[in-house]
Amino acid sequence: MTHLPSRLAKVSARDVNVHYGEKHALKHVDLDIRANEVTALIGPSGCGKSTFLRCINRMNDQIENAHVSGALTLDGQDIYDKGIDVVQLRARVGMVFQKPNPFPKSIFDNVAYGPRIHGLARDQAELDEIVMTSLEKAGLLTEVRDRLDEPGTGLSGGQQQRLCIARAIAVSPELILMDEPCSALDPIATAKVEELIDELRENYTIVIVTHSMQQAARVSQRTAFFHLGELVEVADTEQIFTNPQHPLTQGYITGRFG
Amino acid sequence: MTEHTVKSFDDELTHLSNTISRMGGLAEAQLAGALQALANRDSDLAVRIAASDAQVDVLEQDVQHFTVRLLALRQPVAADLRHIVAALKIASELERIADYAANVAKRSLVLNQQPAVKPVGAVINLGRLVQTILKDIMDAYVEQDVAKAIGVWNRDEEVDDLYTGLFRELITYMMEDPRTITACTHLMFMAKNIERIGDHATNIAETLHFLVVGTPLKGARPKGPSVEAQ
Q: ipTM > 0.90?
């Protein structure tokens, strides 16, 4: 039985299905993402977690034979409404990818890019302010303050990923989607990004897809476990990792399959 | 030690140590209260001490819950792992210590129904010694001071000696005047409980050694002659 979308949730999914051509990739997913929390999506490869993530900012629109059905709302507003401006939606819903992908531009211009195209700054001073604040929030400012005009691609992997987070923050999103943001990083850079995620949730809502169950345990407050396109279990992260209710969740997180 | 990159983990570890310290403080207060109730034949205090044991039990539950959470969510290793495992073990030692203190308080209620007997003073002396040992081991925990922990570990011999002497004294009293047998038997159990508190303090010393150094405290603990063996 499908319930009504929750108005309390930042993002609310009800009976969301995704087909890639014949393939039923996501099956009847009901899931609420709470505001100012980190929600981790875990599950074996092909379980649908990234597919679900990409529904939230309509990245699946890019995929030719993808078809999304069901109700998906952001603050009660239908994300798939015909009147929705997808560019505006993606300003509200930022995204950070698996591999850091800075533009081949300076560090400053990487962060300034979003505010410029969305016209968020009236003059240079305001733009400077946005860039500096975003770099600060991303925990990168002290490391790059003296070389803002150097190319973003010259930074280390971990710094590049934090630059991408700064770039996402610069357009003041409400929700940040992260698709395995640490899988290309070493443990120290990973710890820095995890600390950053912990700090960011005060002001943002975060959904993170991760292959690392340990990372899900460390960074999230809620965890959703997907398997073969179905949402098997969603609960407080502590509950999932100390006393999961579904045998499939138990099997996956204890390394018995997947 | 330097801070973790993820600051909230530091906060959680600090919270854990603080909870253990609070448990230690409560256990110390329970023992002090039980001895005071015994010395002053204060039944009201004894009742309060017996009732307060529940507070320590609640804290032990908190520690248990919190350590399971930390083990599951933080995947601790090395010093962090030892810190968390040690907290779990020390919490159960402190819970036992508080139980023994509560038992001393309960027996003092029965004792107050009887005429006073002289060996009470010796039981209180044993209690005072164990009090200082308990205080020292909790200080050593807060300061992560291995030398102090080893000091506590060695002092258990004093407790054993005092207990053995007390055991003989009580038997002598009972043989001389069978009317004191009820009171003296309760005192004997109280002394045994206090001696057990000392043993749990040495267990904490061993755990603290493992926590700080990473290896078990080796060698046999110096032991006085066992009364049970006589």
A: no
Is the Cβ pair A242, B6 closer than 8 Å? no
CB pairs under 8 A between A and B: 31
Cβ separation of B73 and A195 shorter than 8 Å? no
With 0-12 / 13-18 / 19 or more C-beta atoms within 10 angstroms meaning exposed / middle / buried, residue B21 is middle
Pick the CATH number of B7-213 from 3.10.180.10, 3.30.1490.100, 1.20.58.220, 1.10.260.40: 1.20.58.220
Whether B11 and chain A come into contact, CB under 8 Å, resolves to no
Prediction pTM value: 0.85
Q: What residues pair up with A226 in beta bridges, in sequence order? A: A231
E strand or H helix at B63: helix B43-74
| Best to test chain B binding among A242, A249, A250, A254 (most B CBs inside 10 Å) | A242
**Which pLDDT tens digit goes with each residue over A132-183?**
999 998 999 999 999 999 999 999 999 999 999 999 999 999 999 999 999 8
A238 Cα to chain B: minimum distance (Å): 6
Position B95 confidence tier, pLDDT thresholds 50, 70, 90: very high
For domain A11-253, the CATH superfamily is P-loop containing nucleotide triphosphate hydrolases (3.40.50.300)
d(CA A77, CA A72): 8
